[in-house]
Amino acid sequence: MTNAMGLILSGWKKPELKELSYIRSVSAIPVGGKYRAIDFILSNMVNSGIKNVGVLTQYSFRSLMDHLGSGKEWDLDRRYDGLFVFPPSLSEDESGWYRGSADAMYNNLSFLKRSNEDYVIISQGNGIFKMQFDEMLDYHMSVNADITMAYREMYDYSPDELSMLGIIKIDENNRIVDLQEKPLHPQSDLGSIGIYLIRRTLLISLLEECIAHGEYDLVKDILIKKLDKLGVYGYEFKGYWRNISSVQTYYKCSMDMLNPEIREELFFKNGKVYTKVKDEAPAKYNAEANVHNCIVADGCFIEGTVEDSVLFRGVTIAKGAVVKNSIVMQGAVIEEGATIEYAILDKNVIMTKGKYLKGESDYPFVVGKNSVV
Amino acid sequence: MHHNICKRRQGGCLAPLRRGLPLKHSREGSTTFKKEIIALLLAGGQGSRLGVLTKKAAKPAVLFGGKYRIIDFSLSNCINSGIDTVGVLTQYQPLKLNNHIGIGKPWDMDRMNGGVTILSPFMKESSGEWYKGTANAISQNIDYIDKMAPEYVIVLSGDHIYKMDYSEMLASHIRNNAEATISVIDVPYSEASRYGIMNTDQNGRIFEFEEKPKNPKSTLASMGVYIFTWEVLRDYLLRDEQMESSDHDFGKDIIPTMLAESRSLWAYKFVGYWKDVGTIQAFWESNMDLVSRVPEFNLYDQQWKIYTPNPVKPPHYVAPSGSITTSIVAEGCMIYGQVRNSVIFPGVYVGKDAVIDNSIVMSNSHINDNCRLDHCIIGENVTVGNNVIVGQGDNVPNEHKPAIYNSGITVVGEGADIPEGAVIGKNVMIDIYARREDFCSCEIPSGSSIYYGGVCE
User: Fold this and answer.
1) Taking CA atoms, what residue in A is nearest to B67?
2) Which residues of B touch A35 (CB under 8 A)?
3) What count of other Cβ atoms lies within 10 Å of the Cβ of residue B212?
4) Is A1 a residue whose pLDDT tops 50?
5) Is B355 exposed, middle or buried (0-12, 13-18, 19+ CB in 10 A)?
6) Within an 8 Å CB–CB cutoff, is residue B327 touching chain A?
7) CA nearest B307 in A: which residue?
8) Which of A34, A278, A295 sits opposite B317 (nearest CB)?
9) Cross-sheet strand order for the sheet of B429-430
10) How far apart are CA B51 and CA A230, in angstroms?
């Protein structure tokens, strides 16, 4: 699918993610034991044959830039095209700070203009899913759409979760007739998964028009307003999809990865998920290790009990320590006799000897990066 | 051209000269930065005592330690010691090795100047020949070394497990004003007669070398790590090539000739973990060393990482029914059964109620439900059917290769497919890519062998 380029909107502030996103862009949130959220969309694009990808970043993009580097882990360090990262930059006329998703793209219009691909896939950077875009492009062309939006039947979402999504209504031809962004009372369970396919030249003219009107948001100011004038079609995605937008969704999504079927779909079907490599030795289990229903990354060292949890790279679980229903990020240490339940420990957290910490399944306890408890 | 270089040197444009050595221009007269030391890694050995493990790969390419290949330890030592130019001499079954090394990215050796270069035997104008010995392998690549124009070369063998800072050894070479420095390790007196033994004076200067002596005079065994001053070695290599009777081997020819001519040869004493994993027993043991509570060889040292190409796989998964104790487990594994005292490589599946004890299971092998594996080495991409038992019975040496399979360990070659319900004894050899139909019965007694395409009696 060399006729499409990718644009990833790496996300705005997400206060719902608390400590997890204070220090990093939502797309850079560590997930699944060794990945960052953006690895999924990047891998999807690469696995679909896209070779030209722009990442638009705004908030706390240091860790994201560090993660992406030259794009070589995604095979995007190319002589031509490849990976481009666009942080905001203050220009002479004080523009540059992105005022919205459309504004972010508009500020990098030259990237869109000098690319050669006919189509653009626009995506959020915080979706956890595995999708091939070829079929969506075929569909887009077959219905002669101006814009195609991917949606999913959100049968596994609670009403609260639904109202955090863009909810659509479609007619019998799959044309989108209504789109409500984060409605208080969702009218259906068809939710947008934040993937848009559009002809590059059309996108350029829509962006120019939008900014000329003093408007800045792709969904509110372009999609919703143009539903009548443009042919906006829905393309149904039937796989697993979660986006990381709050501590709860993050926790839920992490725990979903313990489900063998979801793991199979996310990591083994339709191509691999690529990420920045770290040179860690295999995980080491000592005689006292008691580990069940867990994801364990390389470099871990386990002498304690771990159940229903996700351990990132280089985590240490000392003797007599107990970790249940928790997510423990890279380099954290659970010392002897310490216990955590329903907790999310950010990178390099140290739980000192004998400490006890417990959250609730619907309200996990978050411990910020480098904390010592 | 030469004049130019001098002028630039006076102007201070070039990097400061290290250790006060004069900067030479290489034979082509190019002005690339000269390397102080380059490494030559001998990776052509077959390692025939590893049996079926080296049927499709040279010994340095054999998998080790849950995600590595044996050569990774020498290559990582090089880059961790600051050596970024390595010639890897390959000969026997080089495919896996070449694939593994690629352009040297995992070791940060994809460099503009230097980096890793695979040196395989090649055709020359009038002739072309295989590497006839360790020294001959280097002789045939004199052009490569001359192009790099190093002051020193370090000759390594790619089949040992150890961590060593070669820069310290080089410092000692320079301090002693040596022409050759040989790294030695103290071995127990009872084992000394299995090694090449260096006899030194109290300062460490070597006056005698004995290959596998019956009555060793010292316990300093050569580790097969040599630093030579290149000019000196170059001369000895060229002379050695003219000698009809020579085996063209460092230990047998080059070192003894240098000693006979009273050149300056010094021993460099290494202290630490060093294992030649040359036999099935030694290979199994040094893998098992890694799972002990405080391993003698630490893979987790952040100051001295061991590098290898990382598989693109998710972290491993331990199911509710799974359990792992005293083991190391790599990424991409799915463990539904029990793993104890074992080394599990990436992408291994262990089925429900399967129990793996004291074993090494290599990449992407599939151990199905209810298997019992004890004391065995399972190669890559092996399928073990349901209810298979391996490693049961008496410790009878292998019927065809008793010298190789005699320590009670059963070895399954890569790609083999073991049929459901098979009961396999100790010291059994199962050939690479052996198929279900190659098993004549479900009872494979200790000491027997299953061959690919084997005919049932």
Assistant:
1) A282
2) 314
3) 12
4) yes
5) middle
6) yes
7) A279
8) A295
9) A350-351, A333-334, A316-317, A301-302, A283-285, B327-329, B343-344, B360-361, B376-378, B410-412, B429-430, B449-450
10) 69
| Prediction pTM value | 0.89
% of chain B beyond a pLDDT of 70: 91
Per-position DSSP letters for A194-256, written without gaps between them: EEEEEEHHHHHHHHHHHHHTT---IIIIIIHHHTTTS-EEEEE--S-EEE--SHHHHHHHHHH
Q: Which pLDDT tens digit goes with each residue over B385-406?
A: 999 999 999 999 999 999 999 9
For residue B222, what are its two tokens? 């050569």
| Euclidean distance between CA atoms A6 and B157, whole angstroms | 47
B228: number of CA atoms within 13 Å, CB side?
23
Which pLDDT tens digit goes with each residue over A135-182? 999 999 999 999 999 999 999 888 888 888 889 999 999 999 888 888
Average pLDDT value for chain A? 89
Q: Does B288 touch chain A (CB under 8 A)?
A: no
Most A CBs within 10 Å, among B75, B289, B300, to test the A interface:
B300
On the question of pLDDT at B11 being above 70, the answer is no
Give me the half-sphere count of Cα atoms (radius 13 Å) on the Cβ side of residue B153.
Answer: 25
Alpha helices in B253-382 (DSSP H): 255-260, 280-289
Q: To the nearest whole percent, how much of chain B has pLDDT over 90? A: 65
- When pLDDT is averaged across residues A335-344 and rounded to a whole number, the result is 94
Cβ–Cβ below 8 Å for B66 and A285: no
- Using a CB-CB cut-off of 8 Å, the residues of chain A touching B312 are 272-274
- CB < 8 Å to B329, chain A: 282-283, 285, 296
Q: How far B75 CA lies from chain A's nearest CA (Å)?
A: 14
If interface means Cβ-Cβ distance under 8 Å, which residues of chain A face chain B? 32-35, 258, 260, 263, 266-267, 272-274, 277-279, 281-299, 301, 310-313
Report residue B8's pLDDT band, with 50, 70 and 90 as the boundaries.
very low
Cα torsion B14, B18, B21, B24: sign: negative
The span from the CA of B419 to the CA of B430, in Å, is 12
**A283/B328 CB distance under 8 A:** yes
Question: B227 — phi, psi (to 5°)?
Answer: -110, 130
Does the beta-carbon distance from B325 to A287 stay under 8 Å?
Answer: yes
Say how far apart CA B415 and CA B432 lie, in whole Å. 6
B366 interfacial to chain A (CB closer than 8 Å)? no
- Please name the helix (run of DSSP H) or strand (run of DSSP E) that holds residue B232, with its range, or none: helix B230-242
User: To the nearest whole number, what is the mean pLDDT of chain B?
Assistant: 88
Q: Cα–Cα distance between B180 and B266 in angstroms, integer?
A: 6
Q: pLDDT for B236-295, tens place per residue?
A: 999 998 888 888 889 889 999 999 999 999 999 999 999 988 899 999 999 999 998 888
Chain B residues with CB-CB distance to A295 below 8 A: 314-317
DSSP A175: B
